[in-house]
Amino acid sequence: MGYTSSNYTDDHTLVYIAHPISGDIIGNITKVLAIARQLHVEENVIPLTPYISYLLYLDDHSEKERMMGVIGDKAQIARAAERIEIFGPKISTGIKYEALFGKQLVKPITLRNPELINDLGEVLNGYKFTVRPFELKREYMDSVECNLAGLVNNARWLEKVTRFAQLYDTRRT
After folding, report:
1. Cystine design at 102: which of 10, 44, 84, 139 (Cβ 3.0–4.6 Å)?
2. pTM of the complete model
3. Residue pair 81/18 in contact by the 8 Å Cβ criterion
4. More confident residue, 57 or 112
């Protein structure tokens, strides 16, 4: 039986995934996607990672467009997320803002890296949060890397087809 609206159950939790992106941007995006996949498959979570799509179409070097992304993240946290889960090796500036916004909205916050308890505690200044260790399984990282490689290859193929079509058009005229 395929997935249809009639067999949908409303027992999924919408979770905003906070993870640093700067530094190793491609590596961090890959980790976020692997985390999202693992949570979706194993923990009955619908992961919210709007910043990944913003990276594809907004200019991070433009202050105006960067703020558009921040506003989009806040909208997802405020309107959709049932809780915020924090991943990664550090509490970045972006994560600080997301956590403080979650605190302001009284959203549950879960820290998935216990090594950052003190850092997050300083940011949230007394706001109660949960600590729940997370280990990213290699199989999810591998599948996301494979999917991304497929996208890159498809993009290269599309680029070649486009160049061929342009060359063909110039030869016809």
Report:
1. 84
2. 0.84
3. no
4. 112
Q: Give the mean pLDDT of 49-63.
A: 89
What does the pLDDT average to over 43-63?
91
Do the beta carbons of residue 18 and residue 85 sit within 8 Å?
yes
Residue 60 has which token pair?
């991070």
Can you tell me which residue has the tokens 């693992």?
Answer: 38
Q: Are 82 and 15 in contact (CB under 8 A)?
A: yes
Cα angle 144-26-32, degrees, rounded to a multiple of 5? 50
Q: How far apart are the first and last CA of the chain?
A: 53
- Residue where the block lists tokens 């498959």: 41
Of 69, 72, 84, 149, the closest CA to residue 120 belongs to 84
At residue 1, does pLDDT exceed 50? no
- The mean pLDDT value for 26-53 works out to 95
Structure token digits, residue 100: 């403080």
